[in-house]
Amino acid sequence: MREQQIIPVYVITGFLESGKTTLIQSMIEDTGFSRGQKTLILRCEDGEVEYDDFLKPEHCVTVVPFEEASEMTSLKLKSINNEYKPERVIIEYNNVWGVELLGRINLPPKWEYVQVISLADGTTFDNYMTNMRQMMTDPMKEADLIMVNRCRPEDPKSAWRRLLKGVNQQCNIMFENLDGTTEDGVSDEDLPYDMKADIIDIKDEDVGIFYMDSLDHPDRYDGKTVRLVGVCYPDKTMPNGFYLFGREAMTCCADDIAKIGWVTRGTQKPNAKRFVRITARCQMMISPDGSQRVLMLHEGKIEPANAPKEEYVTFG
């Protein structure tokens, strides 16, 4: 059997009752995540959800509680690692202890931080931001994902998103509503281009943002006109008069390159080696069964264009 190269460590931060244990439960019960490997949970506070309520022997999970921040030491973690020999570690961390503590600890061999998720409760978000801002936001500065749960319809998600982006520009932000649906909280004001312009100019570096937002919110662009640089790709699955307009994108790494774009109606002859600047009208389309909404472009003006400085679209 091939020796495991690293032991991934996931850090879940947030105040008491922010939903940390519930998130960890969903991780454990996801067979694609757990894969039957031994998981060690370091629990730094007792919440409203108990692990005994959902953990089963087949989950291969061991929970080790920490009562005080002073217990979180390099020596203690080394001892725990030797005793339980985990294949992955989840730290349910207590915001009150201060996230800088984790930075001072030397992890056991092969342990490596791979993701930090910071949780917040929408019902207490404004109160904590007003009265305990530093304690709430310090973990968010290190987060790969910030998730605000228990959001109500009247909550100002877009304003919260802008506030959180000021804390951590690079992280992903998601809002989970009371009905279980999720959204990104993006509004017109959050986008890097002018949604009120007669022609919305999409810069080369913003094509990835436009692509992802058009997938999530095709209705936002319905009836608007956009202008951007890309390639008219031939696609044998499309009828005459249609082509794929877009770019090549690096979806996760240099070895994972794929074409992204929009189904486009027009007279332009596809040429995968030539960049053009297209001015096109956007139309939101609904699949025949009503299950999917997509954005289609209607070709307007086509002009020759230079290749973008960055060869591939990224989504950072």
Describe this structure in words.
- Helix content is 22%, strand content 33%.
- With 316 residues, it is an alpha/beta fold.
- The model has no long low-confidence stretch (mean pLDDT 90).
- The two termini are 36 Å apart.
- The chain has 9 helices and 14 strands.
- Helix 5 (125-131) crosses helix 6 (133-140).
What's this entry about, in short?
Helix content is 22%, strand content 33%. The chain is α/β, with parallel strands linked by helices. The chain is elongated and about 70 Å long.
What descriptive keywords fit this protein?
single chain; five-stranded mixed beta barrel; 9 helices; elongated
Walk me through the topology:
Elements (H helix, E strand, L loop, with lengths): L6 E7 L6 H10 L1 H4 L4 E5 L17 E5 L8 H11 L3 E5 L7 H5 L6 E11 L3 H7 L1 H8 L4 E7 L5 H11 L4 E6 L4 E2 L16 E2 L5 H10 L1 H4 L3 E9 L8 E9 L6 E9 L5 E16 L6 E12 L12
Parallel strand pairs: 1-4, 1-5, 2-3, 2-4, 5-6, 6-7, 9-10, 12-14
Antiparallel strand pairs: 7-8, 10-11, 10-13, 11-12, 13-14
